Amino acid sequence: MTSRELVRRTLEFSNKTKRAPRQIWLLPWAEERYPAGIKAIREDFPADIVTAPSIFATPPINKGDPCAIGESTDAWGSVFTNAQRGIIGEVKHPLVAPDDDEWADTSRIHVPVEWLTFDAGAVNRFCAATDAFVMADCCPRPFEQLQFLRGSPALYMDLVTRPAGMVAFLKKMHAFYCDLMERWAATNVDGMMIMDDWGSQQNLLIDPRLWEDIFKPLYRDYIAIAHGRGKKIFMHSDGMIHAIYPHLTGLGLDAINSQIFCIGLDRLAPFRGKITFWGEIDRQQMLPRGTPADIDAAVRRVRDTLWDGGGCIAQCEFGPGAKPENVRQVFQTWEDLARE
């Protein structure tokens, strides 16, 4: 069975091999510190999920290294300031001014239409040359992008008051994201991705009713675009997001990458067989402070609680503080479970 078929069967709860598909997420912090360990993990536990390349006819305007100390600019024109090498910094001066409560001036925002010029032929050739499950190289993130453009505190107020300028810009942003999704969905990729970090350590960052009113319809459109072309669709969201799990499963989202140990496995057990848990193992406590034995036990708890003829992907993020031996143990235990 190819990796492509393994991932599909896992997402459809018809994986009879008992092996969970593998994927590692690497931050530059880890790549700089543990190149040999990463090389060994990749060789011993090859990834089943890969991402298609983006080759643009018109290059986006982003510049600088977002993970280097100093400043970098994203494709929307937001300038990030970074004080720690290996991770992404913060926007200190939003493009929508703090005192512009009506969003009267959005002229400094650059909608990255250059993303629409990606080479679809190159994407299709990449898909044809691999047996892996291929993800599109696009990722709508409306909530986070609004924060980059406006600043989080001001945006939280805007979501309550809903100034006409913000509403108009959100419609423009959503139309752009839908266009981008449509173009990628027309290629031969297998899956697509959306993301927004919605949770703090204890709760959603906004009232769940606001989320349902403003953002749920956006995700409904993205999911419909993917499914309309026969693509699977994945989502990433950090924090305590238990409140929106019923909505995401109801919309037909295929897989979600969330902090399942922050939320609690017992809370997530009712969603077994309804959505695929795209990782992960606790990167706040276990990966940096645990032992391989702790990791082994954690993976087994995930398998026992959430596996249902599939429904689990052996995904792990190797980021700041994580021990290489613990990251390796994540994949080793999933491998052991398949053999057992």
- The CATH architecture assignment turns out to be Alpha-Beta Barrel
Mean pLDDT: 97
- Residues in helices, as a percent range: 40-55%
What is the percentage of strand-forming residues?
Answer: 5-15%
Read across the widest sheet, the strand sequence of neighbours is 1-11-10-9-8-7
Give Rg in angstroms.
Answer: 20 Å
What is the CATH level 1 assignment?
Alpha Beta
Kindly name the structural category. alpha/beta
Order of helices and strands: HEHHEEEEHEHHHEHEHEHHEHHEH
| Number of E-state strands | 11
CATH topology: TIM Barrel
Number of helices: 14
Q: Give the end-to-end Cα distance, rounded to a whole number of Å.
A: 19 Å
Fold and architecture overview:
The chain is α/β, with parallel strands linked by helices and 340 residues long. It has a single domain (3-57, 100-339), classed as TIM Barrel (Alpha-Beta Barrel). Helix content is 43%, strand content 14%. The chain contains 14 helices and eleven strands. It has a six-stranded parallel beta sheet with strand order 1-11-10-9-8-7, with helices on both faces. The protein has a three-stranded antiparallel beta sheet with strand order 3-4-5, with no helix packed on it. A hairpin with a 5-residue loop joins strand 3 (70-73) and strand 4. The longest helix has 22 residues, at 164-185. The protein is globular.
